[in-house]
Write a structure and sequence with these properties.
This protein is an alpha/beta fold. It folds into four domains: 165 residues, 3-Layer(aba) Sandwich (Rossmann fold); 176 residues, 3-Layer(aba) Sandwich (Rossmann fold); 45 residues, no CATH class; 265 residues, Rhopdopsin 7-helix transmembrane proteins (Up-down Bundle), CATH 1.20.1070. It has an eight-stranded mixed sheet, with helices on both faces. Strands 1-2-3 form a three-stranded parallel sheet. Strands 20-22-21 form a three-stranded mixed sheet. Helix 2 packs parallel to helix 3, helix 13 packs parallel to helix 20 and helix 19 packs antiparallel against helix 20. The longest helix has 35 residues.
Length: 785
C-alpha cells in the first residue's frame, strides 16, 4: 500500500498537485478490533462517537481491507450505512456481493462463489466422484463448502462426508474428523477454511499418520506458512490449492530491499520486523527513551535473504492491494477530470476536490475501468467483483524437505467454455502413494455389458454392477440402464453390442430337411408304384373289389399328401403360407372321405344282400362319389373362409427363441385353423367307428379290417400330433406336422394297399373270382381240411 501510494505521487499525470495519505488500523483479526478501528476512522477521534465526525481529524475517503471475510462483513455493514467506499483485497465470501446488504463494498479478489465453482470443476476434471468436504464454521467455510457440494452433486458426483471445524478447538472433535477421513474410501478431501482454524485439525491428522489423500485447498490456506513444518510433508504432499492470480509489481523488490529503520525511524512496524529478522536490538534515539542494548550494526540489508514472508516472486494478495490503491487513484482522477455540466450527480454537477463526500467518490470507484502497468484490465462488475482469475498450485516436496508451490493451471470464468479450466497434469506430483492421477470412487466402474444398480440407503455413486438382461446391452461404462437390441439383433456374450440374429426355418439343406424331403418323395413314389400296379391289374378281382375308382382316387390323394409336405420345407413365403395348410386340409380330407366311402360301401353291400333290403338302391357308384364330394366340399369351404377372413402370412418371430429369428407362417386366426383340423379329425373318427363296427363283416379280402387298422394308425398319429405341435416352435413345429402327414398317409397306404399288392404280386391264385366268391379248388381244400 505504501509503495503504491508513493508511486502514484510520483506520477505527474494521474493525480497532479494532489497528495495521498494513509492511516493504518490493526484489526488483530477480531470483529471487535475491526469495528473499533472503523468507528475511529469514520469519526476522526480516538474515542469513537457514533454519527459524529470531526473533519479536523478525519479526511479518509476510502478503506482498503480487511483480509478475512469474517471481519470484512461487520466492517462492510457499518461502512455501507454511509456509502463509504471499502475495497477488500482478500475477503471472498459470496454474501459480500449482495449490494442490498453491502452497498459500498468492492474487492479486487474474486468472489468465493467462483472459487467454489472452480474447485468443483477441478474435482470433476480429474474424474473424482466420491469427495469429502471439511469446512470452517464461519461464513467463509460454510458458504464456500455448500457451493462446492451443490456443484459436485449437480454434475452427478457424490459427497462422502461433510464435516465442520468447531469454532472452539476440541480434541475430541479433531480426533473424530481425523478418524472419518482415515476410514473414508474418498481419496479427495476439499477443505474450505482459514489456516489458523485448520492448523490444529491438520496437526491431529498428521500425528495419526493419515496419508494417501489428495487435499484440495481454498485460497486462505493454499500457501500458508503454518504448514511448512516437516510433520506435514507426508500428509500434505501433492495438495492442490486454489489461489488468487499472481502479478508482478515493477520496482517493488527494490522498494522492499531499500527498507531500513535507519531511513524510516517513524515506522514502528519496520522496527519490530527488523529486530526479528536480524535477531538484534536497534539503538535509535527516541523522544521518550533510548535503547541501550545494541546488537544491530547498521549495515544489515534485506537483499539476498530468504524470506517467505514477502514472497516477492509470488505476489498475490499483495498484487490485489496494489490494484485497490490504483482503483482509488483512478477514481480520484476521473472525479477531478469531470467537466462542468457533465457530472453524474443532480443537475449534472461535478464534485470539487476540496469538498466532496466519500459516497460521491464511491460512484467513481465502482465505475473505474483501467489497465494497470502489466496491461491487465481492472474493473468491478455490478456486484463489486473483479474479473475471475485463479491460479492452481501443487504442493511439491523439495530435496531440502520443504514445500514449493508450483503453479500447474488456472481458472478463468470469462474465458471460452473449453478454456475455463486449464491444468498441466504432467507437472503435478501426487502424494507418494499415487504414481498417477489418484482415483476416488465409492464403487468401481461398471464395464460395458453391465448397468449400475443403486444400493439402498447409499448415494447414487455407490452401486452394484448388474449384467444386462437378455435382449439388452450397454456399450459404455457406468451405464445407468441397458438398451434393447433391435428386433433383428441380439446381444453378444459380453452384452456390449448387438449382433444380427440367425434366421431359422426348416431348409432343404439341413439334415432334418433332407430326411423329410427324401421320405416325402420316396413315399410319393411308392404310392405311384402302387397306383401303377392297380392300373395294370385293374381287371383282377382284388382291384375290382370294393370300388376300384375309390382306390384310384385314394391312391392319388395319398400321393398328393406325401408331396404337399414339401410345401412345408424351405423358407416360408406369403404364397406358401397361404397354400400349405389349405392344401394339406383339403387333400387329407379327400383321403379320409375315400376311406369313409369305402367303409360305408362295405356296410351297405353286406346289408343289401339280405332279402327285401331297402339299401339295394345305394349299391351303385353314386353314393361313394356323393360322400367324397360332400365331405371334401365342406373342407374346401372351411379353407376358403380361412383364407378370406384371416389369411396366413409369413412372419418373423423374434421373441420365442433367444438369439434367433424364426421365419414361420402365422396361421392367422387360430380358431379357423383348428376348425379345419377338427373337421378332418371328425371324419377320421367316423371312419374309424364305421370300420371298427364292420371289421367282421364278410368282405372281399377283409378290407374292412385293414381300413380299421389304417384309421387306428391315422387317429393315433394325429392325437399325438396335437401336444407335440403345441410344445414345439420354429422348424421343429413344422417337422412335427410333416412327420404327422407322412406317418398318417403311410399308415393308410400300408394298411389298405400293401396287403392287396402282396396278393396281386405274390399270391396270384388268391386274385380270382372263385376265391373272391368262396368257390373252386380253394373252397374244396378248405372243406377237406
Amino acid at each position: 500500500m505504501i509503495f503504491a501510494t508513493q508511486e502514484i505521487q510520483r506520477d505527474p499525470k494521474l493525480l497532479p498537485n494532489i497528495t495521498l495519505g494513509y492511516v493504518i488500523y490493526d484489526s488483530c483479526s477480531t470483529i471487535a478490533g475491526v469495528l473499533e478501528g472503523t468507528m475511529r476512522l469514520l469519526t476522526g477521534q480516538r474515542k469513537a462517537t457514533p454519527n459524529y465526525q470531526c473533519h479536523a481529524f478525519s479526511s479518509a475517503v476510502a478503506v482498503i481491507g480487511d483480509t478475512y471475510s469474517s471481519t470484512s462483513i461487520p466492517m462492510a455493514r457499518l461502512l455501507g450505512l454511509y456509502k463509504f467506499p471499502q475495497i477488500s483485497y482478500a475477503a471472498t465470501v459470496k454474501v459480500l456481493s449482495d449490494k442490498n446488504q453491502f452497498p459500498s463494498f468492492l474487492r479486487t479478489i474474486p468472489s468465493g462463489l467462483y472459487q467454489s465453482i472452480g474447485i468443483a470443476h477441478l474435482v470433476l476434471h480429474f474424474g473424482w466422484i466420491w469427495v469429502g468436504i471439511l469446512s470452517d464454521s464461519n461464513d467463509y467455510g460454510l458458504q464456500g463448502s455448500l457451493i462446492v457440494k451443490e456443484e459436485i452433486v449437480k454434475a452427478g458426483a457424490c459427497i462422502a462426508f461433510l464435516e465442520t471445524i468447531p469454532t472452539v478447538y476440541s480434541e475430541k472433535k479433531s480426533e473424530h474428523i481425523s478418524e472419518i477421513i482415515r476410514k473414508s474410501s474418498a481419496n479427495v478431501i476439499v477443505i474450505f477454511s482459514i489456516d489458523t482454524d485448520l492448523y490444529p485439525i491438520m496437526e491431529v491428522i498428521a500425528r495419526n499418520n493419515v496419508s494417501g489423500k489428495v487435499w484440495v485447498a481454498s485460497d486462505d490456506w493454499a500457501q500458508s506458512s503454518l504448514f511448512t513444518k516437516k510433520d506435514f510433508l507426508k500428509t500434505l504432499q501433492g495438495t492442490l490449492g486454489f489461489v488468487v492470480r499472481r502479478g508482478d509489481i515493477s520496482g517493488f523488490n527494490e522498494f522492499i530491499y531499500s527498507l531500513s529503520p535507519y531511513t524510516n525511524p517513524d515506522d514502528l512496524f519496520l522496527k519490530i520486523f527488523w529486530e526479528i529478522v536480524f535477531d538484534c536490538k536497534l539503538q535509535i534515539l527516541d523522544t521518550n527513551r533510548t535503547i541501550e542494548s545494541t546488537i544491530c550494526k547498521g549495515d544489515e540489508t534485506l537483499e539476498g535473504m530468504k524470506m517467505d514472508f514477502f514472497k516477492l516472486n509470488d505476489l498475490r494478495n499483495t498484487y490485489n492491494v496494489y490494484n485497490a490503491i490504483y482503483a482509488v487513484a483512478h477514481a480520484l482522477h476521473d472525479m477531478i477530470s469531470c467537466r462542468h455540466g457533465e457530472g453524474p450527480f443532480d443537475n449534472s454537477t461535478c464534485t470539487m476536490m476540496h469538498n466532496f463526500e466519500p459516497w460521491q467518490l464511491f460512484y467513481y470507484i465502482k465505475n473505474a475501468h483501467f489497465r494497470n502497468k502489466n496491461g491487465e484490465e481492472v474493473f468491478f462488475d455490478m456486484h463489486g467483483d473483479p474479473p475471475v482469475h485463479f491460479g492452481i498450485i501443487n504442493w511439491q516436496v523439495t530435496p531440502e524437505n520443504t514445500f514449493r508451490y508450483l503453479e500447474v493451471g488456472h481458472f478463468k470464468s470469462s474465458a471460452a467454455d473449453n478454456e475455463t479450466l486449464t491444468v498441466d497434469i504432467p507437472a503435478i506430483l501426487w502424494n507418494e502413494d499415487h504414481g498417477k492421477i489418484p482415483r476416488s470412487l465409492c464403487s468401481e466402474s461398471c464395464s460395458a455389458g453391465y448397468r449400475k444398480a443403486p444400493q439402498t440407503g447409499q448415494p447414487v455413486c455407490c452401486f452394484s454392477c448388474v449384467m444386462c438382461f437378455q435382449g439388452e446391452i450397454s456399450n459404455q461404462t457406468d451405464s445407468i440402464e441397458c438398451v434393447k437390441c433391435p428386433k433383428d439383433g441380439w446381444p453378444n456374450e459380453r452384452h456390449d453390442k448387438c449382433v444380427k440374429k440367425e434366421t431359422e426355418f426348416l431348409s432343404y439343406e439341413e439334415t432334418l430337411g433332407m430326411v423329410l424331403t427324401t421320405a416325402s418323395i420316396f413315399s410319393a413314389m411308392a404310392t405311384a408304384v402302387t397306383l401303377i400296379i392297380f392300373l395294370k391289374y385293374h381287371h383282377t378281382p382284388v382291384v375290382k373289389a370294393n370300388n376300384r375308382e375309390l382306390s384310384y382316387l385314394l391312391l392319388f390323394s395319398l400321393m398328393s399328401c406325401f408331396l404337399c409336405s414339401l410345401i412345408f420345407i424351405g423358407r416360408p413365403t406369403h404364397v406358401t403360407c397361404m397354400l400349405r395348410q389349405g392344401a394339406f386340409g383339403i387333400i387329407f380330407t379327400l383321403s379320409i372321405s375315400c376311406v369313409l366311402a369305402k367303409t360305408i360301401v362295405v356296410v351297405i353291400a353286406f346289408n343289401a344282400s339280405k332279402p327285401d333290403s331297402s339299401l339295394r338302391k345305394y349299391t351303385g357308384q353314386g353314393l361313394p362319389k356323393s360322400i367324397v364330394i360332400l365331405c371334401t366340399t365342406l373342407q374346401v369351404i372351411i379353407c376358403i373362409s380361412l383364407l378370406i377372413v384371416s389369411p396366413p402370412f409369413q412372419d418373423e418371430n423374434t421373441t420365442s427363441v433367444m438369439g434367433r429369428i424364426l421365419i414361420e407362417c402365422n396361421e392367422g386366426s387360430p380358431v379357423a385353423f383348428w376348425c379345419m383340423l377338427s373337421y378332418m379329425g371328425l371324419l377320421a373318427i367316423v371312419s374309424l367307428l364305421v370300420a371298427f363296427l364292420s371289421r367282421k363283416l364278410p368282405d372281399s379280402f377283409n378290407e374292412a379290417k385293414f381300413i380299421t387298422f389304417s384309421m387306428v394308425v391315422f387317429v393315433s398319429v394325429w392325437m399325438s400330433f396335437i401336444p407335440a405341435y403345441l410344445s414345439t416352435q420354429g422348424k421343429y413345429m413344422v417337422a412335427v406336422e410333416i412327420f404327422a402327414i407322412l406317418s398318417s398317409a403311410a399308415g393308410l397306404l400300408l394298411c389298405i394297399f400293401v396287403p392287396k399288392c402282396y396278393i396281386i404280386l405274390f399270391r396270384p391264385r388268391m386274385n380270382t373270382r372263385d376265391y373272391l366268391m368262396g368257390k373252386g379248388v380253394f373252397m374244396n381244400e378248405k372243406r377237406l381240411r
